[in-house]
Automatic annotation (TrEMBL):
Name under which the protein is recorded: Arsenate reductase
InterPro entries per the UniProt record, alphabetical: Arsenate_reductase (IPR006659), Arsenate_reductase-like (IPR006660), Thioredoxin-like_sf (IPR036249)
Keywords per UniProt: Oxidoreductase
Record-stated family: Belongs to the ArsC family.
PROSITE patterns on file: ARSC
Keyword Phosphoprotein: no
The keyword Repeat appears for this protein: no
UniProt signal peptide: none
GO function terms (MF aspect): arsenate reductase (glutaredoxin) activity
Pfam families, sorted: ArsC (PF03960)
Organism classification: Bacteria, Bacillati, Actinomycetota, Actinomycetes, Pseudonocardiales
Length: 119
């Protein structure tokens, strides 16, 4: 299991605490320091069943600089969104947990974190 975190984020810290309490084995990826590649982000989005604009943090200052809210949300622009998120990982919603069985969630709630814990 891998969790993408920003240590300054309270939701990330809560998710890590829940994983620890459950005794889960996981790897922490500080995605701001080690951003995903476009292929990795695309794979995570496919596992989530979401599009990049569904997990984009459009209130971030860099999103405003890029005019992200005005970008088209369609298949023709999917790669543009992914590339922006790779170049500016602060745009990626957090935390994201990818479980060993392929289950992937945006773990902003305790319920979402628990949903990827083994049996």
């Amino acid at each position: 299991m891998e969790i993408w975190v920003n240590p300054a984020c309270s939701k990330c810290r809560s998710a890590v605490s829940l994983l620890d309490e459950a005794g889960a084995e996981y790897t922490v990826r500080r995605y701001l320091e080690e951003p995903p590649t476009a292929a990795e982000l695309g794979e995570v989005l496919d596992r989530l069943g979401l599009e990049p604009w569904d997990v984009a943090r459009t209130a971030e200052p860099v999103a405003k600089e890029l005019g992200l809210k005005e970008w088209p949300k369609d298949p023709a622009n999917r790669d543009r969104w992914i590339e922006a998120m790779v170049q500016h990982p602060k745009l990626i919603q957090r935390p994201i947990i990818t479980a060993d069985d392929g289950t992937t969630v945006v773990a902003r709630t305790p319920e979402a974190v628990r949903s990827v814990l083994p049996g």
